[in-house]
Amino acid sequence: MASPAASAIGPVPAAAISGLDLVVLLGLLHVWGLVVGIDAANDDVLSGLDWARRRLHVGTRLYALLMLGATVVVWLPFAVGSYPFFGTGPVGGSRRVIVPIAVGGLLVGSGWYFVGGLLTTLRSSVTLRRATVTDAGAVEGGLVAVSGRVAPLREPLEAPLTGCDAVWYQLTATTLRADDAEDRAGGAADSLLRSVLTYSTDPPRLLADRRTPFAIETDTGRVVVDPAAAACRLERTASNRIAADERPPEPLASRLREAADFETSDRDQCYREAVLAVGDTVTVLGVADSADGRGSIAVTDDWHTDFIVAPGSNREVARALRETIGGCALAAVVLIGSGTALLWWIAGHSLP
C-alpha cells in the first residue's frame, strides 16, 4: 500500500538503497554535523527572523534532532529517484541544479526549525494551563503563574538605547550592507526599490543579556523572581541605526565597551533593544519555593518544567502562545511542503 506522502507527491519507484545513496547520505550527515556544531558554538549568533527570535526557544539537542529529520527528508527523494547531476533531471546540468537543491534544503530545514518552535511553545502553553494562577501575595509552592508589576530588588539596570530603569535587557547588533546607490538622488519609489534590491544584513549578534533578580508586586504583596535561567520572551522596544563614522551615544557606548566579543566595523550597525522595565506588567511561569516563608520563583532541577518570564498579563501571555503555535504550524506546513515538493520534482518524480 502506498504511503500518504508517496500518493501526494506521485508514484515512487521501488528501488533498493545503493552504495551511491549511502555516500550521499554520509555527505549530508557531515553537513548536518557542521550546522549543529556551528549552532552550538555560536550562542551569540541569532536567527535572522525577528518574529522567531523573540518567540521561539529551541535548545541545541532538539535543534540537532530536528535537523537530522530535515536531512533525511532532503536525502529521501534522490535515494528513491535519480540524481540530477548528469543532466537527467528537469533542471539540467550539475551547475544549474545546485541552487534549487540548496533552496529546497533551506526551506525544509527552516520548516523543521518551526516544528521545534511549535513543540516547545505547545509545551509552554500546556504548562501555563496546568499552573495555578496565584496572586503575588499568596504564593505557597508548586507550579504557579504570577502576574504583577516589576519592582527592583537592587540598583536597576540602565537600558542601552532607551536609558530606562530595567531588570532585564537584551542588546543585539546587525551589520548592514548597502551599495553607493543609496546615496544617489531619487524619489521615494526609487529609494524603496534600491533598499529592496541592494540592502542585505548579516545574522544579528547578541551583545548583551543582562538580568537581575526582581519582585512581582500586587496590592496584596510580592514574590521574588530570580530570572538567571529563565526563558526570555521580551518584545523589542527600540532600535537605532549608527553610521560607521558615527560615535554611539551613551549608554549604548558603555555597553559596547563591556561586550568582550564586540568588533568594530567600517559598515553601519543597527542596534536593537528588548527590555523588561521597572513598573511593567509581567507574568512569570515557574515553580515556587516557600521554604523561606516569603515565596520565590527560580530555576529547578525539573527539566520538563518551563521557567518563563514574559511581559503582559496571564491572559495576554496565553494569547501570545496560541498565536505563536498557529504561526509555527503555518510556517512549518508551507516551508516543509514547498521544499519537499521542489526536491521531489528535481529528483525526477512527477507532481500531481
From TrEMBL:
| Keywords of the record | Membrane, Metal-binding, Transferase, Transmembrane, Transmembrane helix, Ubl conjugation pathway, Zinc, Zinc-finger
- Which Gene Ontology terms describe the biological processes this protein takes part in? protein ubiquitination
State the superkingdom. Archaea
A single Gene Ontology molecular function, please? ubiquitin protein ligase activity
Q: Where in the cell is it found?
A: Membrane
Q: Which reaction does it catalyse?
A: S-ubiquitinyl-[E2 ubiquitin-conjugating enzyme]-L-cysteine + [acceptor protein]-L-lysine = [E2 ubiquitin-conjugating enzyme]-L-cysteine + N(6)-ubiquitinyl-[acceptor protein]-L-lysine
Official protein name in the record: RING-type E3 ubiquitin transferase
Q: Which residues cross the membrane?
A: 22-41, 62-86, 98-120, 325-347
UniProt keyword tRNA-binding present: no
Identify the GO cellular component terms for this protein: membrane
Broad enzyme group: transferase
Q: How does it sit in the membrane?
A: Multi-pass membrane protein
Q: Which InterPro entries match?
A: MUL1-like (IPR022170)
Q: Name one Pfam family in it.
A: GIDE
- Name the EC number(s): 2.3.2.27
Record's keyword annotation contains Lipoprotein: no
Domain E3 Ubiquitin ligase MUL1-like, residue spans: 210-337
